[in-house]
Specification:
Blueprint: H1 3-6, H2 12-28, H3 39-57, H4 66-73, H5 78-96, H6 133-137, H7 139-149, H8 152-155, H9 160-176
Helix pairs in contact: 2-3, 3-4, 5-7, 5-9
Length: about 180
């Protein structure tokens, strides 16, 4: 991390911008493909993000806990970033029809009989069964799992901007509160 060598001459805001653009973009690359991977793989990425947060905040290993640093920088942890990416792709495919090749993979959840409880099914997606762990990682299974776990207030956002804002707030509170 070359940012560490330059850090003394940079403000926190400039260091944050450099970290997000240089390293953060590499961490975020193809996040949706990382859904469901082992904790060992995600922990490696999380350690990189933690180290980057320490460099940006200019603190040593023993000065502050990493969770406090991520909260102060308003960065989501790696697992939440993956959820954010999958949920954003799901919103775009489900609500906006973009990209067009993902839209047919998402089907609305249906109930077999009319019940009073069937009102709660509105806005949810059907999650197909998968026999293997790798099958559960495919978009047609991962997207409904992530989408259905979101609160209705987030799922019912009208625009992509408001969806991202509500989603980041939800994930931020879920992880840090």
């Amino acid at each position: 991390m070359l940012i560490r060598h330059l850090r003394r001459g940079l403000t926190k805001e400039v260091a944050n911008t450099m970290a997000c653009s240089i390293v953060g973009s590499r961490i975020d690359y193809c996040h949706s493909l990382l859904y469901g991977v082992s904790a060992k793989v995600l922990d490696k990425l999380q350690r990189i993000q933690n180290h980057l947060a320490r460099v940006v905040c200019n603190v040593g290993l023993r000065d502050r806990h990493t969770i406090d640093l991520l909260r102060s920088l308003h960065w989501l942890p790696v697992r939440s970033r993956i959820t954010f990416k999958v949920a954003t792709l799901t919103f775009k495919a489900h609500k906006l029809g973009q990209p067009s090749y993902l839209e047919p993979l998402l089907q609305p959840a249906e109930v077999a009989r009319d019940l009073r409880s069937s009102v709660s099914v509105q806005g949810l997606l059907h999650k197909p069964r998968s026999r293997t762990e790798i099958g559960a990682r495919r978009f047609s299974s991962a997207a409904p799992a992530v989408w259905n776990a979101l609160p209705a207030s987030v799922r019912e956002s009208a625009t992509i901007g408001s969806f991202k804002s509500h989603l980041k707030t939800h994930l931020f509170h879920q992880h840090f509160d």
